[in-house]
């Protein structure tokens, strides 16, 4: 047993060598693993394995190391395996070299990095200052948790536990008598009590805070000693969960008033998370049995398709031993759960040690798991029934193997290297004998045809003419022919695919018998057809028998007697990345909402079972489940009953039931939030003149008028925007005035203004009703077309058009000046009751932003076509972000979102290729440039795209980019320094953190006239439609 485990852990298959290692280690599995990995790496481990014995001491499954061969057959060794998983990164020579490099680096570099990190503002994303309200909790929505540097593992575990009402109640209600506090002298005891107090504060905030997410820094601070540096090293979820449960168990043991300190039966943590199982087995003819305690139950993933197969493999080990087979003595063991905890946690072993590379690797194979698992088949009480079913299962599988072998003998017929379905071979012979020889073929063509057929299909005749279908030709042409036959259907003409090119007259004829009589033809045809029908019937019967056995195996445990102990899936902890770098998040079932929620650091979003399957099952991407948390049906019903009221109501009840000091702690934090909000508002109001240009202030800069007086910023900004839009349309307004010459001469200025006003309104109204085309967007021509298409209020439309005629830039002649003066007089008559100036301002701001989006889009597309991907991405990202704000108000407010998204995605993929190529060049300057592109552009853009409403195309693109970088992990052609840089990059690449580097807004570009913008729009759209298959939806 120990030899098998050593083989699995180390990859070394030499039994004598492994036996010597075990002997040298006095039977200690851990010592043997350390010895073997050190020997294989030929480099001293420098006591790395001894640096943290707590990784396996006091673990949840089996509290003692194996002392003899009997205990070696128990799951304690699986606990050792988990401990080895924790040490594996330390055993890698590359990891050791990286540690030495890190130790030799000057401390100043580290402090400088921290200093640079601290300069990033919490809300500073994409050059905008988000409103403080964006960081407020919305109603009763669960809160997220801040990632303070590779601490996603902490967030995933704590959120999963917090959403268990019983666990939450135990933590929040934890208290110790004063005499116990005073008598606690040990450092470990004091640390556990301090951690419990910090966890209480954290849980209290998660209940009652008004913030969108909480900061777990205080609790994490206490974990640094146990996990080296919680700030710089990403931790293993199962390792942390073990440590957490141990600490909580010890902390609650202080509060349990029992006579014997070693009796943990009354410990609420033990009652909630720990169960027992019985191990029964036979070893070398001797039977043994033992009851053990478990917390997280470890399961191997390799070689299994689903959770039930994993459990079956874990519960039954061993097979008939050759030495004892004659005595009919079983060699192996069975495990049976004797007591299941209310919270049942399965730890999926998705990491293995690659001995050749000297480092751990992640197992990406697919593993399915259900929303409800029935544990009856693994309980000791079901032992007799399950053993009967296992015997039946074994018999069915043996029968299945025989049937599949028989089916294969039909479907892979022959005795040579190339084998084919027997029914198809008979069909080919039928087609051959039924083919008539060619009648009129020239000698040259005939020879050419014969040559081609002899080269391309010698095997067809060989197979049919040789006894038993033996192929005697071994050259490459025979292999090509085998490929052809294997890929031909019975209805295909074998020679048709290998005819020479040329005119129809030059094509070769099909092979045919030289001479065959009608009597021979009928006899052979009759025999072949009968044999083929018989064989097809046999094949059909075999397939049906296999399907029936498969169904029996599938339904073997669907017995109602084995569905009495259901466990519902509560949480799934997911890991994305590779063995030594990645990101964790959790899917947790929300009982009140009857839906799955995704807890990803500060982000908590609504999810679905389909998304959970995609991210958790594995097999298709770098993300897969690492830990499954099931709860008993009793606990599930208790949660459902408790949550009949709203979650907010339940949380409010729990807040009111808190001790006074915790309620005060929540009130203080909420008071600080309000103070922060006031300070933020005050800071923003002081920054108005220096803020990033809004559409209003930008148009002020672009307008020909002088800057506004600071005392009337709002009024001046409205005037400036409307003046800007009037100036853009001045050529169109001038034409309207020119057409009023007759009215001006006959009826005066007011009549001319009225005529020009109505004619221009009619023209713009008709333009607004025209069907747009991909190459033409009428909204760019005039502000009123934009207003009319978006159903702006009539007062806004009329005032805007009147301002067109009041524009001072229309002072061309006496008639223009006169009309301008009358228009200005009429504007002064419009009072605040006639037009809502705030609404008027918003409409003009929207149009200004629309033009800005259009300019950014066009510039980004032009730069993309010129392969200037860095500059292009900046414009496209800003175009998309600003456009999203417009589309929230209506579909016609912005430009085509799918077009921006398409080219943003294309640009990002191109840029990622550039950055990756620079990184793998291994030249210091080029590597630095690649990292800079990744940090400054790619990562911020990916995080911005990766929101709740992300499209499948964007999600696939992000996955492609992440996979590209993950594929570099462990590459032998990359030195330790480059691997270390990669390790620093990956957590940010995989983790949607708040610390995103600011992307500077691109340079402003202003077209000279609407016609310039429209013609440019038409040219760019024509170009991209002509150069690619892009279609604007």
UniProtKB/TrEMBL annotation:
Protein name: ubiquitinyl hydrolase 1
EC supergroup of this enzyme: hydrolase
CDD domains, A to Z: Peptidase_C19I, UBA_UBP28, USP28_C
Segments forming a coiled coil: 386-413
Comp. bias regions, Basic and acidic residues: 97-116
PROSITE patterns hit by this protein: USP_1 (PS00972), USP_2 (PS00973), USP_3 (PS50235)
UniProt lineage: Eukaryota, Metazoa, Chordata, Craniata, Vertebrata
GO BP terms, alphabetized: proteasome-mediated ubiquitin-dependent protein catabolic process; protein deubiquitination; regulation of proteasomal protein catabolic process
E.C. numbers: 3.4.19.12
UniProt keyword annotations, A-Z: Coiled coil, Hydrolase, Isopeptide bond, Nucleus, Protease, Thiol protease, Ubl conjugation, Ubl conjugation pathway
